[in-house]
Amino acid sequence: MGNEKDIIILGIESSCDDTSAAVIKNGCLLSNIIASQKVHEAYGGVVPELASRAHQQNIVPVVDQAIRQAGISRDEISAIAYTRGPGLLGSLLVGSSFAKGFSLAAGIPMIEINHLQGHVLAHFIQEKDVEFREPKFPHLNLLVSGGNSQIIIVRDHLEMEVIGQTIDDAAGEAFDKCAKVMGMPYPGGPLIDKLAKEGNPNAFEFSKPRIKELDYSFSGLKTSFLYFLRDQIKDNENFIEENQADLCASLQKTIIDILMNKLVKAAKQTGIKEITMGGGVSANSGLQNALRAEAEKRKWNLFIPKFAFTMDNAAMIAITGYYKYQKKQFAAQDAVPFARMSIND
Length: 345
Ligand code: KG4
Fold this sequence. Notes:
Oligomer: single chain
Shape: globular
Number of strands: 11
Bound molecules: 5'-O-[(R)-(carboxyoxy)(hydroxy)phosphoryl]adenosine
Number of helices: 11
Largest sheet: 6 strands, mixed
Helix content: 40-55%
Strand order of the largest sheet: 5-4-1-2-3-6
Radius of gyration: 21 Å
Strand content: 15-25%
Distance between the termini: 36 Å
Order of helices and strands: EEEHEHEHEEEEHHHHHEHEHH
């Protein structure tokens, strides 16, 4: 049973192709339900119209399951937090409309959450019977997903500054687009990660961008990968099948080198040794290993999210809501979602 001082947040995430609901009580996770949408696999990418329809079908059962698994009753919930953006507008509208209805019906406040802040704050989710280590402030976060590649200084739970970001594609897009060129299904990132384990990372060399300061660029890598394969296929039409593992390992190494190079530079420039990582690409085993090696060499205090918190999930939305609730940062009923948002919006 809850008491009046308990802060219980119901989180809702529907920014892309995962419908998720989670319950967090006083910072501790009670449930985190994620319904992934398989319907997009056949199309080689997320189809926005299909994503919003699937969210509509999933949202009520997912929320219901999250509340039941948390072992709480609806009237104990202090506030509902939902993803305002960035993401697909049709998908975001399903989550925000649901949150508005729930908040009105239950007579509780509603909290808008920036999805990017959610990824950063995933490190503050406590779990029952799991040892909890939280990063100190300020820390640096490498945020790498299908839509973002950023280096962020995190000064406080809700105070963040982007000091480097991609000027074109995100790291996840580089994985997914190169996988598509090799004829692999969407999303290609996890498959490249798996195949790379069997391959030689030094078998092939791909061009790395020369971008100023702490920014990233991945579109040139995708093009050079495409042209390289075109040339090789002219001589051997089975080139991709015969070299799949080496191609994956070499491509993955290139992406990791690009990411790590700027992260090391950012740590040196800022003098910050407290390092965290977030977003879908942070599940990549090669990237995790590279970070661990660098952390050991440079005496970084490193935080890698557990797998369930790397992907889009409502637990990270609920924990961000927990911090915003304490500052009484509530949303009005006429709030609207945004497809494009930066970390401080
Ligand atoms: O954060 P996320 O679930 O969605 C958003 O972009 O918001 O990230 C999805 C991205 C996809 O590009 C996917 O290919 C990539 O994360 N990804 C990976 C791995 N797991 C997911 N990329 C490389 N290695 C992985 N193990």
